[in-house]
Amino acid sequence: MFVQEDGDSDSSQELMSAKTRTKKEIDEDLKRLREWLSKQPHLPKNIDDEILTAYVNGTKSLEIAKQKLDAYYSSKSKVPHLFSFPARDMDDDGFKQGCEALKVFFLPKKTPENYIVLFVTFDLDFSKFDHDQYLVRLMMMVDLAMLRWPDAEGIVLATDLSGMDASIFTKCNVTTSGFFFNWFQKTIAMKLKKAVAVNAPKFFETVMNSFVRPFLSQKLYGRIIVTSEGVSALKKFIPEQLLPVDLGGNEKSSTDLNKYWLEELHKRKEWFVKTNQQLVDETRRPADKLSTYGVDGTFRSLTIQFLFRCLPELILKC
Predict the structure, then answer these.
(1) Which of 215, 133, 204, 201 is closest to 169 using CA atoms?
(2) Most exposed: 34, 190, 265, 307, by fewest CB within 10 Å?
């Protein structure tokens, strides 16, 4: 089973545009972004330089960087339970239990295109899977990616679905899915360049149609490839030497990489406490710049679409 990739005609143009910018041009845009930020009464001011650099590097223009940065901080007030503690507390029992369901880690090295690779394997105890906790963990990893690799050209998401079972239908939250994909598309500086899922069970097409496709642009959905083939299929999209040794590559095992990134999340606990408090003050937003983040107007319609289009199919699958 495949979700075939569309012709992403402008991806090479985007990459060329990003790589032809000089350090001087990036530094000038970074200076302009800081100046603009200092004049925005509703936005937080104590933003890390690396985060601002990621928005300059990851967008086509300074105006898009401004829009996405505003949307990034505005999003935290839309669904506050995903950005506050204990949801983001590595010491919380619920967070720990959710981490026992699957592995989430970055590969140690970037691809030749300067992409970072975020890897997820559903090969632990899926009975402990918590959908909201999983998406919070992904969001925390993406936050750290912008901090750690502000010069990255984009993200590749690789997923091994071998341990997923049909109970996924009863565990997924369509509202949280809608928020997550809107958050990723509209607020994050780094672009999703490709998503590859291997060992897909037969029912996964319904998962895609129910919890993913309704919330993605056609362009972004076209970058997703799903196959029932095993992990060897990953080598078609990610250089073999970059993969974990237990997945056919030369790097540390997925178990070791998962442990490393759980420790990194824990080490950054105080950083998450700080950044979770970086909120937009809507009472101070300039009157002509209302609601640059469009979640409020889309959630109801997306949820209704889900109920009428996908629920009968889910009932049959269960």
Answers:
(1) 204
(2) 307
- Residue-wise pLDDT for 113-135, tens only, equals 999 999 999 999 999 999 999 99
Q: What does pTM read for this prediction?
A: 0.85
Task: Write the pLDDT tens digit of every residue in 274-310.
Answer: 999 999 999 999 986 444 433 333 343 444 444 444 5
DSSP symbol at 5 = P
Cα pseudo-dihedral 222, 223, 226, 227, rounded to 10: 110
Nearest to 138 by CA among 181, 186, 93: 181
Handedness of CA 88, 89, 90, 94 (dihedral sign): negative
- CB–CB of 174/303 below 8 Å? yes
How far, in Å, are 26, 84, 223 from residue 178 at the CA level?
Answer: 33, 19, 18
234: left (phi over 0), alpha (psi -120 to 50) or beta: alpha
pLDDT digits (tens, 9 = 90+) for 237-259: 999 999 999 999 999 999 999 99
Question: How many Å is the maximal CA-CA distance in the chain?
Answer: 58
CB burial readout 226-265, b (16+ within 10 A) else e: bbeeebeebeebbeeebbbebbebebbebeebbeebbebb
Would you state the structure tokens that stand for residue 253, as one six-digit string? 């095992």
What span, in angstroms and rounded, lies between the C-alpha atoms of 141 and 135? 10
Integer Rg of the chain from CA: 19
Angle between helices 23-38 and 49-57 (to 10 degrees): 120
Distance CA 224, CA 213 (A): 10
